[in-house]
Amino acid sequence: MDWIIGAAGACLxxxxxxxxxxxxxxxxIAALIMGTVYYGAxxxxxxxxxxxxxxxxxxxxxxxxxxxxxxxxxxEKSGRRDAVQVLANGGIGMxxxxxxxxxxxxxxxxxxxxxxxxVTADTWATEWGSLSRRPPRSIxxxxxxPAGTSGGVSLRGSxxxxxxxxxxxTAGSVLLLWMDNGPDWPLWAWIPAGAIAGTFGAFVDSYxxxxxxxxxxxxxxxxxxxxxxHCGTSTVRYRGWPLMNNDAVNLLSSAAGGAxxxxxxxxxxxxxx
Length: 273
Ligand SMILES: [Zn+2]
Description:
Blueprint: H1 2-19, H2 25-40, H3 44-62, H4 65-74, H5 83-102, H6 106-129, E1 137-138, E2 152-153, H7 155-179, H8 190-211, E3 215-217, E4 224-225, E5 229-230, E6 233-234, E7 236-239, H9 246-272
Antiparallel strand pairs: 1-2, 3-4, 3-7, 5-6
Helix pairs in contact: 1-2, 2-5, 3-6, 3-7, 5-6, 5-9, 6-7, 6-8, 6-9, 7-8, 8-9
């Protein structure tokens, strides 16, 4: 029965996102599968955090879209997320949800909140930071970078990361209180765990983006881009590891955020439990 409710809920959300052009067709199918699993194998805690991430990120990406259009064009990103992007953001969470379904244990909850806090912090920082009038600075060298560049950080983006990550932690705490289930850790501790882990994960994302993430140059217009095609021609790699694209960086930073949230919760349980 939970699987049917999950499929119906996911169908509603994915359909609306597709209609609003937040998701491509493949992205909508991936979101449908993901939402069904989050509710069917999980419950409102898992589904609720995914939904909160998804709705707030989609809404933020629509804010002042015209102002962002210029920066986005440079990076060949459209507002519509495809299946790969959907899986890069929600895929680890889905695996954790399934793991908890098969082998129920507190560890999955800790990792999950950290992962969702990281993807939310990262998305909020990117969307909010790109509205900054001042250019972001490289997390490694401190030099100004064009807006939207991987590896750039700004004060505005960093504040957005903390708020987004804290929101996930708070929502996790409220949902667990309401569901009256989950790990035997102090409920309030999810708030700092989410805020700290998500912010850390977003900075790991920026750091990897500035160091090992693959970047290409467009031979036609000369711009530095993240995609392999630009101006209708193949781009040339000039730095980074060939397989370390933006999605791989997202996966690694999510793992880092998940591990930190789990560590914070275990410590909180030991000290205050
Ligand atoms: Zn070009």
